[in-house]
């Protein structure tokens, strides 16, 4: 092991959260070591947000083209994943991280490639190809190691050549038959994308509905759209066994079997915290997350950002928290982290944009709840949109305070439309003030106005 090297900050993991912290602190003149065992940039650009959204973009274009006969003439659509696969490969430079690692180093970060682990407060050991290196961080360590795909203990699954998000982004052609295990955001987004590229998709969700944590109305709208597009959605089913032989996956279900060519497992994520030395800094090594306070502090000279904090597994949360860590390390006017108006968007069609609490979460929190609903197909813009107009707007209000605490927009561009509810909840704008706003005709926003009007307040 080499002699310990003293620096100001060590950032362990250089994904969305860690990359931001490392670059900003180095630009402020701090001595920063950034440790990464895989690609600088992490999950989002290489195996997550970007490739999945590029697939979804191609898939949405196909869906729009399929409406031409009904709305605008005649079109023959021959789906081909190859151009999208090319865009994905170009976007992430063939899975090379120069586009991330070079700017990082230009900012002054010392990049150390290898697997790192905590070795007491302010100490990090990195296993590099040249042996172990030890760093002592005067100001502290920022833990930002993210998550990896988790797979359920279904007999026969381990060892079968199934896809996770790491493999699916390399697909260059849509399989004839695709099984998707898990109806969360990853499963739902990719099930629809592949269906639109021509795969016969079976989507298997163990819970009662797709997108379980979101409003039931959102699950209903998405399930209806999926079913109409020919996706075989099965919720409340548990796969009993998986067998892979002769190039096929055979999934045994109670009362039947599903046979597919490829199987995507999207049943949740596990934080990269195992073997990372949490016990050396007084934390529980078996915890599924690192608890942080409102300044992202997790212990003595220890901060954590991103998915490992369990505050919201989204790139925008990792970046939001990174801003907080930078301010706290530098001792600058720190804004305490606030998740009241946490936003999330599932990029299905219809898109599910949500912010704050669901109705059930608000009730569980003891809020005096009022709910307003509006059907998107019945709104002026929804009707004009025609095919593909499924959706609903739901607002959840706290009657006592006269403000919104949650909102969901399921609609074309639902994630964009939801933005106005996000502002309202973040700034606690009174519902009366919102009702007095101008809502341009004929935008999807007018369904939000209808939902606000229907609140019994
Ligand atoms: C398919 C998919 C689609 C997604 N789509 C969206 C989306 O549309 N919008 C959105 O907001 N979010 C999306 N997400 C979630 C988003 O990717 C994550 O929330 C985000 O990447 C979290 O950033 P992070 O910095 O916490 O972790 P990560 O991006 O996971 O980065 C952690 C880094 O730490 C490294 N690391 C781990 N252990 C060690 C170690 N011991 N030593 C050194 N390095 C280590 C890893 O190699 C990795 O590079 C998606 C995720 C997936 C999988
Ligand atoms: N648009 C976005 O922002 C976006 C997109 C993709 C992923 N992400 C984030 O990445 C994280 C991971 O996504 P995910 O969809 O893998 O996880 P998830 O935990 O959100 O959903 C997993 C789903 O799989 C189901 N499941 C679990 N075991 C199962 C089994 N044995 N059989 C069938 N279904 C099973 C669960 O009930 C759940 O519905 C999420 O938390 C998500 O927020 C975000």
UniProtKB/TrEMBL annotation:
Residues 8-322 form the FAD/NAD(P)-binding domain. This is NAD(P)/FAD-dependent oxidoreductase. The lineage of its organism: Bacteria, Bacillati, Actinomycetota, Actinomycetes, Propionibacteriales. Belongs to the class-I pyridine nucleotide-disulfide oxidoreductase family. The keyword Amino-acid biosynthesis does not apply. It comes from the Bacteria. It holds the Pfam family Pyr_redox_2. Residues 344-451 form the Pyridine nucleotide-disulphide oxidoreductase dimerisation domain. Its cofactor is FAD. Keywords: FAD, Flavoprotein.
């Amino acid at each position: 092991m080499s002699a310990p090297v003293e620096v100001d900050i060590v950032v362990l993991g250089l994904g969305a959260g860690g990359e931001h912290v490392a670059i900003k602190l180095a630009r402020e003149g701090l001595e920063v070591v950034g440790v990464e065992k895989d690609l600088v940039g992490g999950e989002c650009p290489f195996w997550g947000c970007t490739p999945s959204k590029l697939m979804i973009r191609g898939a949405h274009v196909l869906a729009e083209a399929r409406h031409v006969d009904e709305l605008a003439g005649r079109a023959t659509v021959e789906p081909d994943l190859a151009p999208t696969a090319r865009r994905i490969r170009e976007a992430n430079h063939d899975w090379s991280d120069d586009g991330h690692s070079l700017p990082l180093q230009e900012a002054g970060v010392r990049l150390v490639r290898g697997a790192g682990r905590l070795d007491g407060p302010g100490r990090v050991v990195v296993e590099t190809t040249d042996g172990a290196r030890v760093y002592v961080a005067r100001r502290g360590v920022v833990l930002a190691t993210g998550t990896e795909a988790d797979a359920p203990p279904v007999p026969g699954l381990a060892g079968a050549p199934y896809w996770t998000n790491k493999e699916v982004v390399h697909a260059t052609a849509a399989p004839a038959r695709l099984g998707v295990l898990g109806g969360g955001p990853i499963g739902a987004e990719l099930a629809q994308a592949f269906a639109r590229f021509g795969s016969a998709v079976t989507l298997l969700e163990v819970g009662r509905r797709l997108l379980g944590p979101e409003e039931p109305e959102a699950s209903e709208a998405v399930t209806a759209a999926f079913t109409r597009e020919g996706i075989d959605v099965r919720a409340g089913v548990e796969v009993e066994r998986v067998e892979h032989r002769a190039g096929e996956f055979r999934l045994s279900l109670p009362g039947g079997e599903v046979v597919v060519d490829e199987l995507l497992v999207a049943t949740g994520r596990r934080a990269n915290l195992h073997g990372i030395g949490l016990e050396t800094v007084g934390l529980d090594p078996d915890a599924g997350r690192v608890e942080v306070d409102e300044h992202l502090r997790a212990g003595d000279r220890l901060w954590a950002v991103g998915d490992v904090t369990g505050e919201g597994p989204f790139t925008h949360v990792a970046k939001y928290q990174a801003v907080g860590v930078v301010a706290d390390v530098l001792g600058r006017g720190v804004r305490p982290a606030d998740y009241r108006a946490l936003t999330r968007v599932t990029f299905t069609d219809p898109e599910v944009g949500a912010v704050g609490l669901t109705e059930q979460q608000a009730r569980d929190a003891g809020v005096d709840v009022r709910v307003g609903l509006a059907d998107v197909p019945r709104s002026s813009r929804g009707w004009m949109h025609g095919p593909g107009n499924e959706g609903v707007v739901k607002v959840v209000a706290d009657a006592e305070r006269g403000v919104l605490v949650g909102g969901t927009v399921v609609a074309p561009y639902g994630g964009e439309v939801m933005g106005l509810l996000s502002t309202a909840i973040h700034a606690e704008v009174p519902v009366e003030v919102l009702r007095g706003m101008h809502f341009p005709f004929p935008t999807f926003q007018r369904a939000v106005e209808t939902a606000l009007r229907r609140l019994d307040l």
